[in-house]
Amino acid sequence: MQNIFFGISKYLFIFLMSFFVFFSYIIMRDKNQQSHKPALFIQSVMMFVLHFTGFLIILMNTRDNTIVLFYGGQLVLFILLRGIYSIAFEELYSKGLINNMCMLLCISFIMLTRLHYRMAIKQFIIVCAASAIAIAVTAIVSKAEQLNRLTYVYCFAGIAFLVVVLILGQTTKGANLSISLGGFYFQPSEFVKILYVFFLAAFLSKSVSFQRILVSALFAGMHVIILVLSRDLGSALIFFIVYVMMVYVATGKSRYLAAGIFGGGLASVVGYKIFPHIRVRVQAFMDPWSVIDNQGYQVTQSLFAIGTGGMLGLGLYRGSPKSVPLVAQDFMFAAISEEFGGFFAICLIFLCISCFMYFIKSAIKQKNMFYKLTGLGLSISYAVQTILTIGGAIKFIPSTGVTLPLVSYGGSSVLCTMITFAILQGLFVISSHEEEKERKTAEQVTEAIDLAITAGISIGEEPVRKKKSNTQS
Known about the structure:
Blueprint: H1 2-29, H2 36-62, H3 66-89, H4 95-115, H5 117-143, H6 151-168, E1 170-172, E2 175-181, E3 184-186, H7 188-206, H8 210-229, H9 233-251, H10 254-274, H11 276-286, H12 297-309, H13 332-340, H14 342-364, H15 369-393, H16 411-472
Helix pairs in contact: 1-2, 1-4, 1-14, 2-3, 2-4, 3-5, 4-5, 4-14, 5-16, 6-7, 6-8, 7-8, 7-9, 7-15, 7-16, 8-9, 9-10, 9-15, 10-11, 12-13, 13-14, 14-15, 15-16
């Protein structure tokens, strides 16, 4: 009986995920808030059913009763998070975006519990703390009006964090990535991404003169160079692309984009010549089979996992995702593809694209250039990180060692990604307030016009009535 249930469950996962993503695009496209409610309800049901099914399979395979408590804690977290957002921000925030965030966290908890139970518990504790921080961040962003005045605070605070990591950071995979505080490891570059975007948005929103672009390039270059010296080249690439795209959008001049592409290509060649571990990753990317026992082992195991799963997957607990080194951190996409299948993995990609489109939609709706650039920068950062992770897992690009946002294991990553989602929710609240004000103003203008027209007709009719009276007499 269990085998039948396990066999059916993989089709159920694909069905639930595909329709969840389908409704995500329906909600994002439809502008009528009232028509969202049925789709949002269906989305929520699908998410909770997928979450329940995943943990039921985990319980049946592990026979560990603590799984029930762990699942219950997650359920309470999702209900409280959605409920508090609804109470605090009423109908002003994006319910579709928060549904997407919760679905990504559901997938993460299922896979982490399947791979490393202790990692899943740590991730859950961090997500609980991050949820409280996210609600506070949304409230601050939606109400604070002086965020664009802290330009150099964002800049120098970010540089200071990166310098601390360069000097005192723990070396992981050949790079200085994290610092240890009380037994917990933090990766400051994840937090600096947000400060970096705020700095560029505040700086470029004031002026986009050539001199100002040069100054912004100087400060952005300082961030990137420190990351390169720390050998955190994945983050350096994200910072560089974010800068180029923000300058291009702020100025609207294609020559800056062309210069960025040329400079990035030149820097890639220089990096290849200077850093041995880049040459190792490029070799593993170009021909992993020739170095399968050493440099290419991680990539080939990822490809084996994806190929073994096929389009329908082997089923939860029916694969061997632990054979991929650092699977929970860098190659979670391979583990998902193996056990949930290619269809599910493709839906996951479309779900990430949906989140990116929500981000862009929030940025476009902003009238304030600072908020517009902030939304754009965070959107690009999220998109590039997702592309680097999935691209490395499928050998589309060399592996960079960055995590899949909200899905992979990593305390700093999940905390900063949830803060990013919270900032975008704050921008949604701002744009909703502006739309509400415009609607009320339009209604007042319409009422004033109607009153003026009514008054004009009354005044114009008075002589007519008097003329009729004289005629009759």
